[in-house]
Each structure stands twice: as C-alpha cells, then as structure tokens.
Design brief:
Layout lengths: L1 H64 L2 H12 L17
Length: 96
C-alpha cells in the first residue's frame, strides 16, 4: 500500500506538468489563429475603406460629367469644336 502511494505521489507532478504543457500549447495555437484572423480582418477593413474612397471619387467624377464645363472641355479637346466667335491660330508645321 505504501508503494502505491509513493508511486502516486511521483506521478501527480508529472501528470500536472503534462496537463499544463498541453494547456499552454493549445492556448498558443489558439492565439496564433486569433492573430492570423485578426490580421485578415484588418486587411479586409482596409480594402473596404480603399474601395469606399474609390467609389466616392468615381461618384464625384460622374457628377462632374454632367457639368457644362466638362462637356465644353471635352468637345474642345477631343472633338476640336470651337465657338462661333472664336478664331483658331495654327502654328506652322502643325495640323489638326
């Protein structure tokens, strides 16, 4: 009976060390997963913010396309339109 108690007393610290090591190991794995998922979530939030900024910029461009100034600028630059009272000067060597 005494030998069994001595063996038990020797096994308890080993068992506690094994359980403690397993607890630490599992918590470490969970912490690594948490950090990975947290980093992914932050990256996704950053991507969403960038896309929202891009969307706002595009919406402001769309609004500017309806303005008379933009339409006139486009007609002059891309289509070569002029107003009826304007005179065009073309330097030598250049053609439109």
């Amino acid at each position: 009976m005494q030998k069994k108690k001595k063996i038990r007393h020797k096994l308890y610290p080993i068992l506690l060390i094994c359980m403690g090591s397993a607890f630490v190991f599992l918590n470490y794995i969970q912490y690594k997963n948490y950090r990975k998922l947290n980093n992914q979530a932050n990256q996704i939030l950053n991507d969403i913010q960038k896309e929202n900024d891009k969307q706002k910029k595009l919406q402001s461009q769309i609004k500017s396309y309806d303005s008379d100034e933009y339409i006139e600028k486009t007609a002059r630059e891309k289509l070569g339109f002029i107003k009826s009272n304007e005179i065009i000067f073309i330097p030598d060597g250049e053609e439109q």
